[in-house]
Design a protein that fits this description.
Blueprint lengths: L1 H13 L2 H15 L2 H24 L4 E2 L2 E2 H31 L3 H6 L4 H31 L6 H25 L3 H17 L12 H8 L2 H14 L6 H25 L6
Antiparallel strand pairs: 1-2
Length: 266
Protein backbone atom coordinates (compact mmCIF):
# COMPACT_ATOMS: atom_id res chain seq x y z
CA UNK A 1 0.00 0.00 0.00
CA UNK A 2 2.80 2.41 0.86
CA UNK A 3 4.47 1.64 -2.46
CA UNK A 4 1.21 2.33 -4.35
CA UNK A 5 0.80 5.62 -2.47
CA UNK A 6 4.35 6.62 -3.39
CA UNK A 7 3.71 5.87 -7.07
CA UNK A 8 0.52 7.95 -7.05
CA UNK A 9 2.36 10.82 -5.35
CA UNK A 10 5.10 10.69 -7.98
CA UNK A 11 2.56 10.67 -10.82
CA UNK A 12 0.66 13.61 -9.33
CA UNK A 13 3.95 15.44 -8.86
CA UNK A 14 4.83 15.08 -12.52
CA UNK A 15 1.35 16.20 -13.58
CA UNK A 16 0.99 19.11 -11.17
CA UNK A 17 -0.42 22.57 -11.92
CA UNK A 18 2.71 24.20 -13.44
CA UNK A 19 3.14 21.23 -15.78
CA UNK A 20 -0.52 21.29 -16.84
CA UNK A 21 -0.34 25.05 -17.38
CA UNK A 22 2.69 24.77 -19.68
CA UNK A 23 1.15 21.86 -21.57
CA UNK A 24 -2.10 23.79 -21.99
CA UNK A 25 -0.17 26.77 -23.36
CA UNK A 26 1.64 24.52 -25.83
CA UNK A 27 -1.62 23.04 -27.09
CA UNK A 28 -3.46 26.37 -27.34
CA UNK A 29 -0.45 27.84 -29.13
CA UNK A 30 -0.95 25.67 -32.22
CA UNK A 31 -4.72 25.31 -31.84
CA UNK A 32 -5.24 29.09 -32.19
CA UNK A 33 -3.73 29.03 -35.68
CA UNK A 34 -4.99 25.61 -36.76
CA UNK A 35 -5.21 26.58 -40.41
CA UNK A 36 -1.42 26.98 -40.43
CA UNK A 37 -0.45 24.22 -38.02
CA UNK A 38 -2.96 21.49 -38.93
CA UNK A 39 -4.65 22.28 -42.24
CA UNK A 40 -1.58 23.44 -44.19
CA UNK A 41 0.36 20.17 -43.62
CA UNK A 42 -2.63 18.20 -44.90
CA UNK A 43 -2.63 20.24 -48.11
CA UNK A 44 1.12 19.68 -48.47
CA UNK A 45 0.64 15.93 -48.06
CA UNK A 46 -2.12 15.98 -50.67
CA UNK A 47 0.29 17.66 -53.10
CA UNK A 48 2.91 14.98 -52.43
CA UNK A 49 0.31 12.31 -53.17
CA UNK A 50 -0.73 13.95 -56.45
CA UNK A 51 2.82 14.64 -57.67
CA UNK A 52 4.66 11.53 -56.54
CA UNK A 53 1.81 9.05 -56.17
CA UNK A 54 -0.23 9.71 -59.29
CA UNK A 55 2.59 11.19 -61.40
CA UNK A 56 5.31 8.62 -60.72
CA UNK A 57 2.80 5.94 -59.81
CA UNK A 58 1.59 5.79 -63.40
CA UNK A 59 5.15 4.78 -64.44
CA UNK A 60 6.20 2.73 -61.40
CA UNK A 61 3.54 0.09 -61.10
CA UNK A 62 4.57 -1.80 -57.98
CA UNK A 63 7.29 -1.89 -55.34
CA UNK A 64 7.64 -5.16 -53.43
CA UNK A 65 4.29 -6.25 -54.79
CA UNK A 66 2.49 -3.12 -53.53
CA UNK A 67 1.09 -0.36 -55.79
CA UNK A 68 3.50 2.57 -55.72
CA UNK A 69 0.98 5.06 -54.30
CA UNK A 70 0.15 2.72 -51.45
CA UNK A 71 3.87 2.04 -50.93
CA UNK A 72 4.82 5.71 -50.43
CA UNK A 73 1.80 6.83 -48.41
CA UNK A 74 3.06 5.49 -45.03
CA UNK A 75 6.28 7.45 -45.52
CA UNK A 76 4.36 10.60 -46.48
CA UNK A 77 2.21 10.27 -43.36
CA UNK A 78 5.31 9.90 -41.21
CA UNK A 79 6.94 12.84 -42.98
CA UNK A 80 3.99 15.02 -41.93
CA UNK A 81 4.33 13.76 -38.34
CA UNK A 82 8.06 14.55 -38.28
CA UNK A 83 7.61 18.03 -39.72
CA UNK A 84 4.75 18.98 -37.39
CA UNK A 85 6.39 17.60 -34.24
CA UNK A 86 9.75 19.22 -34.91
CA UNK A 87 8.24 22.52 -36.02
CA UNK A 88 6.02 22.82 -32.95
CA UNK A 89 8.70 22.45 -30.29
CA UNK A 90 11.53 24.23 -32.12
CA UNK A 91 9.47 27.36 -32.79
CA UNK A 92 7.93 27.27 -29.30
CA UNK A 93 11.31 27.19 -27.53
CA UNK A 94 12.75 29.86 -29.79
CA UNK A 95 9.74 32.15 -29.28
CA UNK A 96 9.91 31.59 -25.51
CA UNK A 97 13.55 32.71 -25.53
CA UNK A 98 13.03 35.65 -27.86
CA UNK A 99 9.96 36.98 -26.02
CA UNK A 100 11.66 36.19 -22.68
CA UNK A 101 8.75 34.28 -21.17
CA UNK A 102 11.10 31.31 -20.85
CA UNK A 103 12.15 33.08 -17.62
CA UNK A 104 8.73 32.40 -16.13
CA UNK A 105 9.05 28.72 -17.00
CA UNK A 106 12.53 28.53 -15.49
CA UNK A 107 11.38 30.26 -12.29
CA UNK A 108 8.45 27.88 -11.86
CA UNK A 109 8.79 24.84 -9.57
CA UNK A 110 8.84 22.49 -12.56
CA UNK A 111 11.66 19.99 -12.91
CA UNK A 112 13.60 19.63 -16.19
CA UNK A 113 11.71 16.36 -16.78
CA UNK A 114 8.37 18.16 -16.47
CA UNK A 115 9.49 20.92 -18.82
CA UNK A 116 10.70 18.43 -21.42
CA UNK A 117 7.54 16.35 -21.07
CA UNK A 118 5.21 19.35 -21.48
CA UNK A 119 6.97 20.64 -24.59
CA UNK A 120 7.29 17.18 -26.12
CA UNK A 121 3.64 16.28 -25.46
CA UNK A 122 2.56 19.50 -27.19
CA UNK A 123 4.64 18.54 -30.22
CA UNK A 124 3.41 14.94 -30.12
CA UNK A 125 -0.23 16.04 -30.03
CA UNK A 126 0.22 18.30 -33.05
CA UNK A 127 2.25 15.67 -34.90
CA UNK A 128 -0.29 12.92 -34.25
CA UNK A 129 -3.24 15.13 -35.25
CA UNK A 130 -1.53 15.90 -38.55
CA UNK A 131 -0.60 12.24 -39.00
CA UNK A 132 -4.14 11.00 -38.33
CA UNK A 133 -5.54 13.65 -40.67
CA UNK A 134 -3.13 12.59 -43.40
CA UNK A 135 -4.01 8.94 -42.84
CA UNK A 136 -7.73 9.69 -43.14
CA UNK A 137 -6.99 11.65 -46.32
CA UNK A 138 -5.07 8.65 -47.70
CA UNK A 139 -7.94 6.18 -47.26
CA UNK A 140 -10.08 7.40 -50.20
CA UNK A 141 -7.00 8.18 -52.31
CA UNK A 142 -5.34 4.78 -52.08
CA UNK A 143 -7.49 2.59 -49.87
CA UNK A 144 -4.61 2.53 -47.38
CA UNK A 145 -5.14 -0.32 -44.90
CA UNK A 146 -3.94 -0.53 -41.33
CA UNK A 147 -2.98 -4.18 -41.03
CA UNK A 148 -1.35 -3.75 -37.61
CA UNK A 149 -2.98 -0.73 -35.93
CA UNK A 150 -1.13 -1.04 -32.60
CA UNK A 151 2.25 -1.11 -34.34
CA UNK A 152 1.10 1.81 -36.49
CA UNK A 153 0.23 3.84 -33.38
CA UNK A 154 3.43 2.89 -31.53
CA UNK A 155 5.60 3.84 -34.50
CA UNK A 156 3.83 7.16 -34.97
CA UNK A 157 4.14 8.03 -31.27
CA UNK A 158 7.82 7.07 -31.04
CA UNK A 159 8.63 9.07 -34.17
CA UNK A 160 6.75 12.08 -32.86
CA UNK A 161 8.52 11.91 -29.48
CA UNK A 162 11.92 11.69 -31.18
CA UNK A 163 11.45 14.72 -33.42
CA UNK A 164 9.59 16.80 -30.86
CA UNK A 165 12.64 16.25 -28.62
CA UNK A 166 15.03 17.23 -31.41
CA UNK A 167 12.92 20.32 -32.01
CA UNK A 168 13.53 21.39 -28.41
CA UNK A 169 17.28 20.99 -28.93
CA UNK A 170 17.09 23.11 -32.09
CA UNK A 171 15.06 25.78 -30.29
CA UNK A 172 17.52 25.89 -27.41
CA UNK A 173 20.60 26.32 -29.58
CA UNK A 174 19.06 28.64 -32.19
CA UNK A 175 19.94 32.33 -31.89
CA UNK A 176 18.05 33.29 -35.05
CA UNK A 177 14.89 31.82 -36.56
CA UNK A 178 16.78 30.78 -39.68
CA UNK A 179 18.90 28.42 -37.55
CA UNK A 180 15.78 26.32 -37.00
CA UNK A 181 15.00 26.18 -40.72
CA UNK A 182 18.67 25.50 -41.47
CA UNK A 183 18.68 22.35 -39.33
CA UNK A 184 15.41 21.22 -40.88
CA UNK A 185 16.65 21.83 -44.42
CA UNK A 186 20.22 20.58 -44.06
CA UNK A 187 19.70 17.64 -41.70
CA UNK A 188 16.10 16.46 -41.36
CA UNK A 189 14.95 16.75 -44.99
CA UNK A 190 17.94 14.86 -46.45
CA UNK A 191 17.54 12.14 -43.82
CA UNK A 192 13.85 11.93 -44.71
CA UNK A 193 14.44 11.58 -48.44
CA UNK A 194 17.22 9.03 -47.82
CA UNK A 195 15.00 7.17 -45.35
CA UNK A 196 13.07 5.10 -47.86
CA UNK A 197 9.97 7.25 -48.13
CA UNK A 198 9.89 7.03 -51.94
CA UNK A 199 11.83 3.81 -52.55
CA UNK A 200 12.76 0.43 -51.15
CA UNK A 201 16.29 0.19 -49.76
CA UNK A 202 16.81 -2.94 -51.85
CA UNK A 203 16.36 -0.89 -55.04
CA UNK A 204 19.46 1.21 -54.29
CA UNK A 205 23.11 0.49 -55.15
CA UNK A 206 25.22 -0.80 -52.25
CA UNK A 207 26.70 2.58 -51.12
CA UNK A 208 23.30 4.31 -50.97
CA UNK A 209 21.75 1.25 -49.39
CA UNK A 210 24.32 1.49 -46.60
CA UNK A 211 23.46 5.17 -46.13
CA UNK A 212 19.77 4.29 -45.94
CA UNK A 213 20.34 1.61 -43.31
CA UNK A 214 22.36 4.09 -41.23
CA UNK A 215 19.50 6.62 -41.32
CA UNK A 216 17.30 6.55 -38.17
CA UNK A 217 14.31 7.82 -40.16
CA UNK A 218 14.51 4.70 -42.33
CA UNK A 219 13.57 2.51 -39.37
CA UNK A 220 10.59 4.71 -38.54
CA UNK A 221 9.36 4.62 -42.15
CA UNK A 222 10.02 0.89 -42.49
CA UNK A 223 8.15 -0.04 -39.30
CA UNK A 224 5.27 2.28 -40.20
CA UNK A 225 5.05 0.84 -43.73
CA UNK A 226 5.05 -2.69 -42.37
CA UNK A 227 2.25 -1.80 -39.96
CA UNK A 228 0.20 -0.19 -42.75
CA UNK A 229 0.71 -2.42 -45.81
CA UNK A 230 2.72 -5.40 -44.58
CA UNK A 231 6.02 -4.91 -46.45
CA UNK A 232 9.41 -3.89 -45.05
CA UNK A 233 13.13 -3.99 -45.77
CA UNK A 234 14.24 -4.65 -42.19
CA UNK A 235 12.61 -6.98 -39.64
CA UNK A 236 9.75 -5.04 -38.02
CA UNK A 237 10.90 -5.73 -34.45
CA UNK A 238 14.40 -4.49 -35.30
CA UNK A 239 13.05 -1.32 -36.90
CA UNK A 240 10.73 -0.56 -33.97
CA UNK A 241 13.46 -1.28 -31.40
CA UNK A 242 15.89 1.05 -33.20
CA UNK A 243 13.22 3.75 -33.33
CA UNK A 244 12.36 3.43 -29.63
CA UNK A 245 16.05 3.65 -28.68
CA UNK A 246 16.43 6.74 -30.90
CA UNK A 247 13.37 8.38 -29.33
CA UNK A 248 14.54 7.52 -25.80
CA UNK A 249 18.00 8.96 -26.39
CA UNK A 250 16.54 12.11 -27.96
CA UNK A 251 14.19 12.67 -25.00
CA UNK A 252 16.90 11.93 -22.42
CA UNK A 253 19.30 14.32 -24.16
CA UNK A 254 16.64 17.01 -24.26
CA UNK A 255 15.92 16.64 -20.55
CA UNK A 256 19.62 16.91 -19.75
CA UNK A 257 19.99 20.09 -21.86
CA UNK A 258 17.05 21.67 -20.03
CA UNK A 259 18.53 20.60 -16.69
CA UNK A 260 21.78 22.38 -17.47
CA UNK A 261 19.93 25.49 -18.64
CA UNK A 262 22.44 26.08 -21.41
CA UNK A 263 21.44 28.90 -23.82
CA UNK A 264 17.91 29.07 -22.48
CA UNK A 265 18.02 32.85 -22.47
CA UNK A 266 18.03 34.82 -25.72
Amino acid sequence: MAEDSGERTLALGVLDLPFRTLLSREVSRFARVWTQTLLAPLLTSALYVVIFGYGLGSRIREVEGVPYLRFILPGLILLSVITASYGNTSSSLFDAKRERYIDEVLLSPMTPLQMALAYVLGGVLRGMLVGVGTFVLAIPLAGLPAERPLLLLATGLATSVAFASLGIVAGVFATRIDHIFFLSTIVIQPLTYLGGVFYSAEMMPAPLRAVTYADPIFYAVDAFRFAAVGVSDAPAHTALAALVVFAGLAFAGTTEILRRGYRLRY
